[in-house]
Amino acid sequence: MEDITTGIPTKSSWKVWLKRKDEYCPFLKDWTDAVPEIEFLELLADAVHSYMFKVRLHGKTYALKLYTVSQPLWSRFETIALVKDAFIVESRAYNSLIERNLGGVVGPHCHGWLAIDKNQEIELDRQFNLSRGYTSTDTGLIHKLKHQGRRPWLGFRQFEKSTDPVRGLLLDYIDGTNLGKATLTSQAASNLRSQLEQLHSLFIAHGDLFPRNIMVARNGRPFLIDFSSAHIYPSVRSRTKEGIEGYMYDEKCALEYYLFQLQQLQRHRKVTLTDALNEEDAYGGRVSSFIEATKEDFVD
């Protein structure tokens, strides 16, 4: 819904966040006042709904995840924003972890949230050429974003008239690589199982548990990352315990499949990551086509 005189949306995820953040995320600190002191060092990655930057603040290196500003046409806007807006969902997941003393135990530690103003947004866009696909000649990335299931626009905003600020989460920086390219120890494999189990103990399913969302630091420590698609019980996405338990079971199966694929690589020939005899044994039955498609992610 929008104001017909201005074309500016009357409902937005930012307004929902301001209204409900103290109720849903009381353990997340507001770092907005520190934004002018943040030094942006590197653009690490982009996703459907966000950009990930390597930054420095007060002499320490962090990862800063900044979320794009879209304008979804949800009918029950506030109810749905609380379970589908990527920033709100990920904030809720990290808040739950911090509340249960699992911050930095499951996934990287989240230090809090922030918002950047329009001038800072424009400067970031200029510095990293975000609205032009990183570089003016990077036609491959532009094609990928527009035609391969990614968001159909570049830069932070879907619509220029939107007035919501760009929001972000300040996270521990992980110097490492994703699971498919990582070297794992038996202890690290057990740690991953433990992280997933502890996340599930909060009745939170990761929601996007693919190799790209599991990082392994240079010191060998693994991390679950990116909780922006999490299913948090109870919600309109997971109305029953049986529903959320189904998601969690599938994620346990997926993790065992990934560990089996790692076990097959030459670099893990002297390491035991799983006792599974084959792919179906690891997965617990016929492998989902979505999970099977990740096989090519595991390379020596």
From TrEMBL:
Segments passing through the bilayer: none
Any idea where the Protein kinase domain is?
Answer: 38-300
GO function terms (MF aspect): ATP binding; protein kinase activity
Under the heading PROSITE patterns, the entry gives: PROTEIN_KINASE_DOM
Gene3D superfamilies listed in its UniProt record: Transferase(Phosphotransferase) domain 1
Q: Which InterPro entries match?
A: Kinase-like_dom_sf (IPR011009), Meiotic_Drive_Suppr_Kinase (IPR052396), Prot_kinase_dom (IPR000719), Sim4_Fta2 (IPR025213)
Would you tell me the protein name for this molecule? Answer: Protein kinase domain-containing protein
For this protein, the record's Pfam families field holds: FTA2
